[in-house]
Design goal:
single chain, alpha/beta, Rossmann fold, five-stranded parallel sheet, 5 helices, binds manganese (II) ion
């Protein structure tokens, strides 16, 4: 039995493969989606325990997608954690305002990632 199911919405294949490998070693089941529409569909299908959301996605950006996922009743309380290289002033506030529980900076630190995931799964939530 996997510890939890994590949906990772990310358009960059190398990032998807890296994160998937690290999280599978930790015992998580990882479901991937390469764009927003696919992410929305998979989120409804697989009922993830946590969603990792790349912010820079084609078609629908990660913040818009987060807001849409928040409108789905079954997904209302699922932690959504933004993955972003944008660390400009205001980005943190924007991710939280969109409905994310927090964010993880890119490039992902693979030693730190399992701890970050465990914290968000246990209910941690950043506040503006
Ligand atoms: Mn991207």
């Amino acid at each position: 039995m996997p510890k939890a199911t994590i949906l990772y919405i990310e358009d960059n294949l190398a990032n998807r493969e890296l994160v998937k490998r690290v999280l599978e070693v930790e015992g998580y089941h990882v479901v991937e989606a390469e764009d927003g529409p696919t992410g929305l569909r998979r989120a409804v299908e697989c009922r993830p325990d946590l969603i990792l959301m790349d912010i820079n996605l084609p078609e629908i950006d990660g913040l818009t997608l987060t807001a849409r996922l928040r409108q789905v009743e079954a997904l209302r309380n699922v932690p959504i954690v933004a993955l972003t290289a944008n660390v400009m002033k205001g980005d943190r506030e924007r991710t939280l305002a969109a409905g994310c529980h927090g964010y993880i900076r890119k490039p992902v630190d693979i030693d730190e990632l399992p701890l970050q995931i465990a914290r968000y799964l246990s209910g941690m939530r950043e506040h503006v």
